[in-house]
Specification:
The protein is of the alpha+beta class. The chain has 22 helices and eleven strands.
Length: 547
């Protein structure tokens, strides 16, 4: 690569920092569900990252689990940013700063760094999209290094990470095979990921029984709020045919959505124009076929929206495909179907006609970038209440080992077999995603919970009594808040004698509380939640054995 002036090195450093900072966010709960999937039940779909990270999570509290996944997410974001810049630098190694090829790579890289695709991967921090990007970098590099089996192994790992690699990533690997000198041999790289896709398809048909115990495990451990478990497991409950029935008819409406027309499509068009401009290096007799391949590869991720709901994310993925197509065409080595054009060494000053298309594409890229940044970034993937960072919502979550008895944690969404007296427990338990948003913000429930003032105010009183159970652990955990008064409390009765009691702490936000019950292990016990105060209340979330 030619020696860079200081401004050039500074520009690249700023791009690296910009890309990294936009991607450094805490993983949210939907992503966390998929990080916790693993192979224990023999289920294949989206299980590979969980299988690798699982040993690091054993025996850890929710806060520690959160930190492990945060570090993984941050490391992947930084690695993706650096790898993108390094890939662009390698594409420029044999180019002079005055050539049109050099200009195409610079404009394309800058446009990608400022694109809705980067904003989307940042807003959806913790998803596996960036892992797939790294997998594409590795697979295409191995194809170009004439190591197709290694490329296939990486691609198959990507399939087991996220099955959408079939349309986001694998088409780029296929393009690398086409551009390789011995493309028939390079096509061997496609065999392992295609076999992986067959395994995922089989798991949808044969592995359904594994979903229920996996879902129960995630619910029991309470490392993910209840309403996000159902959402996170949607991909395991629904196969391709179910998704096609439910949402394929919405696809063309999403294409015409104002967010697509003004925020996503302009940047995609700019990057596709740069990719097509790069095909000027292709011999004329091959140019049409290569351009057709570039357009097909670029548009492939768009059709994921036929199968999944997160359509802005998938539309933005086309931008990454267009960028990779640009680099692959320009970086194809000697012996590929692509050869450097005879005009590639001419200067801009001596050949303005040759650089006219580059100037036009640059203007389009600038306009597209300005358009996308004029729209609020979260429009790519709305960061609503459910998408809040996991750390903010669940730092005080319990890491449950087991329930005390059936429905001790209220996850049956009814009180049975608890017995209620008085009016304080009417309409209980409460949905963590329902009710008054202001109350949810102050109490911060993660699962179904009990609040004795929610329906009839502080004037309501009553008692909630559990069935008898035998204490089978050393520590009982729950979350509690409310009025600091002896008339509003939770107590443990062992042999019908009160042994432990806790009142509210004067705050509304639920906090973790744990009782040491090792001395009572093996004895029969009951729990009582008491609200005997006409001026107070108590809030409570679940009971379970904790570490």
């Amino acid at each position: 690569m030619a020696r860079d002036p200081r401004w050039w090195a500074c520009a690249w450093s700023i791009l690296i920092a910009l890309s990294a900072l936009r991607g450094l966010r805490f993983a949210h709960d939907y992503a966390r569900v998929h990080w916790l999937l693993h192979y224990d039940f023999g289920f294949v779909k989206r299980a590979l990252p969980g299988a690798l990270v699982r040993p690091l999570l054993r025996g850890k509290t929710p806060g520690e689990i959160n930190d492990v996944i945060d570090w993984c997410t941050a490391g992947i974001a930084i690695a993706t940013a650096i790898a993108t810049i390094r890939l662009a630098e390698r594409a420029l190694e044999n180019e002079r700063p005055t050539t049109w090829r050099w200009g195409v790579v610079v404009v394309a890289t800058t446009t990608l760094m400022l694109s809705p695709f980067v904003a989307s991967t940042a807003n959806l921090s913790g998803y596996f999209d960036q892992l797939l990007v790294l997998g594409v970098f590795a697979s295409t590099g191995l194809v170009r290094a004439n190591r197709p089996w290694a490329a296939g192994a990486v691609a198959s790992a990507c399939v087991l990470t996220q099955e959408m690699f079939a349309l986001f990533g694998l088409p780029v690997v296929a393009l690398a095979c086409i551009l390789s000198g011995g493309w028939r041999r390079s096509a061997v790289a496609l065999a392992p990921p295609l076999l992986g896709l067959l395994a995922v398809a089989a798991s949808e048909q044969l592995g359904g029984a594994a979903v229920a115990p996996l879902e129960r495990e995630v619910l029991r451990s309470r490392v993910v709020p209840e309403n996000w478990v159902a959402t996170g497991f949607h991909a395991l409950h629904h196969d391709v045919s179910a998704n096609l029935r439910e949402q394929s008819h919405l696809f063309f409406g999403w294409l015409r959505d104002p967010a697509s027309l003004w925020f996503i499509h302009p940047t995609t068009a700019a990057l596709l124009a740069l990719a097509l401009l790069a095909t000027r290096a292709v011999p004329p007799e091959l140019r049409f076929r290569i351009r057709l391949a570039v357009v097909t590869v670029t548009m492939a991720p768009v059709f994921i929206a036929v199968l999944a709901w997160d359509w802005p994310r998938f539309f933005a993925m086309a931008q990454f495909h267009a960028y990779m197509a640009t680099l692959l065409v320009l970086s194809a080595h000697r012996g590929d179907v692509v050869a450097p054009a005879a005009t590639s060494e001419r200067s801009i000053r001596s050949d303005m006609q040759e650089h006219g298309p580059l100037v036009a594409a640059t203007v389009l890229a600038v306009v597209a970038t300005a358009t996308s940044w004029s729209t609020t970034l979260p429009r790519v993937a709305s960061a609503d209440e459910g998408d809040e960072p996991f750390r903010a919502r669940s730092q005080d979550a319990l890491l449950c080992r087991a329930t005390l008895f059936d429905n001790s944690d209220f996850l049956w969404r009814r009180l049975h077999p608890w017995q209620a007296t008085g009016r304080a427990f009417a309409g209980q338990p409460l949905d963590p995603a329902g009710g008054d948003p202001g109350r949810r913000a102050s109490v911060r429930p993660l699962f179904h919970w009990v609040g004795t003032s929610e329906y009839r105010g502080d004037g309501a009183t009553g008692t909630l009594t559990s069935p008898r159970f035998v204490i089978a652990g050393d520590r009982i955990g729950f979350r509690v808040s409310g009025t600091r008064s002896e008339d509003t409390h939770v107590r443990l009765l062992v042999a019908e004698r009160e042994r432990l009691r806790v009142t509210g702490d004067g705050q509304e936000r639920l906090r973790v509380h744990a009782w040491d019950v090792a001395a009572f292990r093996g004895q029969a016990a009951r729990l009582e939640v008491v609200d005997a105060s006409p001026q107070g209340h108590i809030n409570l979330e679940g009971f379970c054995y904790v570490r």
